[in-house]
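pipeline/complex-builder :: batch 7 item 3
reading input block
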Amino acid sequence: MTATARSRRKTLQVNGIEDSPRGKVLSAAASLFREQGYERTTVRDIAARVGIQSGSLFHHFASKEEILKAVMIDVIRFNTERLQHAVAAAPGTRAKLRALIECELQSIIGDTREAMAVLVYSWAALSPANQKDVLGLRSVYEQVWLDVLTAARKEGLIDVEPFVLRRLLTGAISWSNTWYDPQGPMSIAQLVDTVLGMAIRPSKEC
Amino acid sequence: MTATARSRRKTLQVNGIEDSPRGKVLSAAASLFREQGYERTTVRDIAARVGIQSGSLFHHFASKEEILKAVMIDVIRFNTERLQHAVAAAPGTRAKLRALIECELQSIIGDTREAMAVLVYSWAALSPANQKDVLGLRSVYEQVWLDVLTAARKEGLIDVEPFVLRRLLTGAISWSNTWYDPQGPMSIAQLVDTVLGMAIRPSKEC
DNA sequence: TGCCAGACCAAGCGCTTGCTTGGTAGTGTA
DNA sequence: TACACTACCAAGCAAGCGCTTGGTCTGGCA
């Protein structure tokens, strides 16, 4: 890609990260962290993918862990915003629930796939203090889910305690990044419906 | 613990691993890999927990990765056997399905919790050749699941394609090791029923 | 009693790691 | 022209890593 072409595409990259020098580092780091894990990825790997020297990374980030944290924060912010919009736009509780599932699947197997995998698999690499910071943002995201699930329960749409259901769905959905193939025979919409079918109270489906 | 007490408990430890010198290393390694991840755990950490020098580890294992591989293989063998027995003992397809879920939850939040977490989170640390070896064993385990799910579908007990359902359940179940607390308000039996309720065809529950 | 094999120690090698340092090129502003 | 600022390079340091080496101790068997 030429420098001109690169500077023209200036808003969002593959995973909701800007095309600034900083953004390019985050984008490269997210891919590498996903491919090899955080610890197996060296700062030299990241620098090489960006096309700079390893020392130059520290002009943009104070430490390797700051890069990891920034990847996580960016992807949570991006996905929280998307989730909130999708829920606001959906007409009823059932539609809101479907929107949540669709949104989260989109995050995990679609545009923010790389960074989301990092969030799950490299969590333990963050220091406790940084974990706490990231969890704070994460809880906003989770609250959107819990509000809808609580409403769904009041309406008798679901049978299971919202906290428990949310956690089972988190697992089912996030695991899909290990197997789901967008080019495969199953469409995302089909997968959304399947997951929705698992979540919703049996009798409401008859 | 005295040496006498240790040698008396001679068969299985916390995670289905023997109480030989080799077994003690595997047991310590499983805990540490789970607590800190594979890469962040040094051979010195493992040796210290066992109470030997780091170099002495290499009298029992050729490399650090061999330790990881051995942890994975042992836990898969142990759980495959348990799964097979549980399925054989269950009377009908519905009972077999319930047994599968119960067994897997037991593996993940019960006795082999540590090693199972390692299996999920440190997978990428294995070389491709070792991944292939471990996958070979894993496929035996998965086949037990698929056989039951295929039968369940023929009987109209489930609605979803076995492959897809298995993967959604894998995620939902394995994620529970991040949140389920055996001392908490929810019993394992309740959790099993909840998961079973999600798997089984809606109309069959009415 | 002599011997051997398994289990372990003490020391350290060679390499990679995250990160620091001192300096340079290019750009915008006054 | 002078200055400031951002982005970057080239070189390398100190620490920590997986693993090796040569040797010691001990229990069991011939």
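note: Chain A touches chain B at residues 36-37, 39-40, 121, 124-125, 159-160, 164, 167-176, 179, 186, 191, 194-195, 197-199, 202-203, 205-206 (CB under 8 Å).
queue -> next item
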